[in-house]
Amino acid sequence: MKRSYLFGLGAVAVIASVAVVVQMSATQNFFVSSVNAQNVQKQQKVKLQLDAEKQVITQDQQGKQRQTWQSLQGKATVQPGDILRYTISGENISDKQVKNLTINQPIPKGMEFILKSAIADIKSNSKITYSIDGGRSFVENPTIKVTLPNGKVETRPAPASVYTHIRMQVPLVEAKSVVKGSYQVQVK
Q1: pLDDT at site 44
Q2: Angle at 172 between CA 184 and CA 46, to 5 degrees
Q3: Contact at 8 Å (CB) between 175 and 92?
Q4: pLDDT tens-digit series, residues 15-51
Q5: Which of 28, 144, 130, 34 is nearest to 87 (CA)?
Q6: d(CA 115, CA 185)
Q7: Are 141 and 92 contacting, i.e. CB atoms less than 8 angstroms apart?
Q8: From CA 129, how far away is CA 165, in angstroms rounded?
Q9: How many domains does the chain divide into?
Q10: Which residue has the higher pLDDT, 62 or 39?
Q11: Burial of 12 per CB tally in 10 Å (0-12, 13-18, 19+)
C-alpha cells in the first residue's frame, strides 16, 4: 500500500483490498497530485490524479454572463462564496482490466458540497453515492430525521451542509484507459 499525504482533502482508491490516499489543502497548495495503486496479486495499477478549478464568471460587451473554469495550481487564494470543481481521474496504466475501483473523496473542511453537482464517468457505468456520517456509510440519496414541533419525526433529504464524502464506484476500468468523476463545492 502506497500513501501520499498532502493535507486536508483526500482521494482514496480501493482495488480489491488495496487503498491509496491523496490529500491536498483546499485553500493552500493547489497542484496536480498523482499516486499509483497496485493490486499485488495481479500487478494491476491505477494512477490517481486530483485537479482543482475555480469558477470564474465574466460579462461580455452585451452584458451576458459567461462561466469558465480556471485551473488552480501552486498557491491559490479562494474567498468565501467561490465555487470550486474537483476532478478525479483514475488511469489504468496496466495491460489488464481493473474491476471494482472505488474512489472516496472527502468534502474539504470549510467547504460545502453543491447538491447535484457530482458527475460520474458515464462510459464506464460508474455510480455516485454520498456519506453524511464521515465516510462510514454511503447511499445514493442521504436522508436525515427531523423532529417536528408536534413531536413527530419525519425523514427528509439531507441538506448539502451535512455531506462529508462522495464515492465513485467504477465496475470496470479497461486496460490503458482513464475514468473521471467531478463534483463542486462552495467555500464557506
Answers
A1: 57
A2: 70
A3: yes
A4: 322 233 333 333 333 333 333 333 334 455 899 999 9
A5: 34
A6: 9
A7: no
A8: 9
A9: 1
A10: 62
A11: buried
Domain around 69: 3-187
Q: Could you tell me the three cell numbers for 148?
A: 417536528
CB-based burial label for 163 (10 Å; 0-12, 13-18, 19+):
buried
Q: Can you tell me the distance from the alpha carbon of 43 to that of 149, in angstroms, rounded to the nearest whole number? A: 58
Among residues 75, 28, 76, 34, which one has the least CA distance to residue 51?
A: 34
Report which residue type is found at 60. D
Q: What angle do CA 179, 184, 185 make, to 5 degrees?
A: 140
For 109-123, how does the pLDDT look when each residue is reduced to its tens digit (9 = 90+)? 999 999 999 999 888
Q: Comparing C-alpha atoms, which of 131, 112, 123, 109 is closest to residue 170?
A: 123
* pLDDT the model gives residue 12: 36
DSSP state of 159: P
Residue 75: the pLDDT is: 75
